[in-house]
Amino acid sequence: MDIAIIVALVMFSGVFILLLAGTPISISIGISSFAAMCLILPFDGAILTSAQRVFVGLDSFALLAIPFFILAGNLMNNGGIAIRLINCAKMVSNFLPGPLAQTNVVANMLFGSISGSGVASAAAVGGIMSPIQKKENYDPAFSAAVNIASAPTGMLIPPSNSLIVYATVAGSVSISALFMAGYVPGILWGLGVMLVAGFIAKRRGYVADRSANKGQTLRILFDAIPSLMMIVVVIGGILGGVFTATEASAIAVVYSLVLGVIYRNIKIDDLPKIFLATAKMTAIVIFMLAASSIMSWVMAFTKIPALIASGLLSATDSFIVILLIMNLVLLLVGTFMDPTPAVLIFTPIFLPICMQFGMDPVHFGIMMVFNLSLGTITPPVGPILFTGCKVGDIKIERVIKPLLPFFAVIAIVLMMVTYLPAITMALPQSMGLVK
Question: Distance between CA 358 and CA 77 in Å, rounded?
């Protein structure tokens, strides 16, 4: 048997077995990758190479953006920004069927686009909206389903930590291009959820509220402008070449902190708790990146991606079918693995295959992150699913059925993103970020 096949079996089966045993994903990847490396290198060489890969894998200026964007999201969660974005969203969606449900979706898109975290959106927006919707006699299962289904839009609408990780792994892929490419798919995801929510709300009699007058609307929109300006400052600065994505993340932190102090929602005593939560979350992501660097080296050294590519190409020469297979694999993986490790593992496997057929790395990156974002709202792992159920104070079993029509619409949008490159590429191409 070819050594590459043996190495792949040891590495991937090792990860699967360790995950079943309850081992954290980063530890599972690290141990399995080191065991596979021992098959191709002497033990002392494997130790030395593993240590080198850990440091080389983290030696990237772009990765500094991750802790800063995480900190910015935590500051926003505690800084009173969420409630102002929700009030703004309510003004936008007040005339639609099921206005509170529509507000939830728009608020998740706005908050997610600033914080870059689907879990943070589900917690912040859902935590505020759930009591209001209960008071208006909305079905708690429906409310939770809307919040859960719309929260991942922030993982596509920039800034997005998953896209930063993908850019690091893929190499020579512009973060600015990825950020711009994520806008239309993220907005389409949100609009799809709004369409389903509106249809269900109309059937259930959740009527639109037209009570807000012009003065109230202007006051609420004016109050939300400082929060909305963060999008303009961060994304506009990146596109204008004023600063890099990493520098933009630091600016987002300062902006969030200043707003939190101005709104009087953040006190000096709150900062240690916020910094600690950020450090914990950053450590999880960074350690995962370090462990995955070992796996990436093993795959490159043994040419596992080329092996998988030849296997796929021998099964079919249709790129349409290959993309469908990739989507099915990623959907399955996304049900039990977070997006970050999945991006780290499958980018070096699938990206070379897609590039053989002329698919742009930016298009592939959005397709992959979109697909894996769907996994965050599916059992058994689904962090956004669990967060949404927790803030909605409802059991998961009651939410699965109401989520099904949302799953269907999101899956349709995923197919559109996969097979219609213009959805992803039109915006970055028009801005000259990609050819």
Answer: 41
**What is the spatial distance between Cα 133 and Cα 392, in angstroms, rounded to a whole number?**
10
Distance CA 41, CA 82 (A): 52
Q: Which two tokens stand for residue 315?
A: 């099964």
| Contact indicator for 326, 350 with CB cutoff of 8 Å | yes
232 burial level (CB within 10 Å; 0-12, 13-18, 19+): exposed
CB neighbours of 392 closer than 8 A, spacing ≥ 6? 126, 130, 140, 143, 144, 147, 399
Q: For 225-256, what is each residue's pLDDT tens digit?
A: 888 888 788 878 877 778 887 888 888 889 88
d(CA 384, CA 151): 7
Within 205-318, residue ranges assigned H as helices are 214-239, 245-262, 271-302, 304-315
Cis ω before 152 (30° cut-off from 0): no
Its pTM stands at 0.82
Exposed, middle or buried by CB within 10 Å (0-12, 13-18, 19+), for 435?
Answer: exposed
pLDDT tens-digit profile of 65-88? 888 888 887 887 777 777 787 878
Q: Is 98 left (phi over 0), alpha (psi -120 to 50) or beta?
A: left
Among residues 376, 296, 388, the alpha carbon closest in space to that of 337 is found at 376
Ramachandran quadrant class, 256 (left: phi over 0; alpha: psi -120 to 50; beta: rest): alpha
Residue owning tokens 């204008």: 240
Tokens of 115: 């914080």
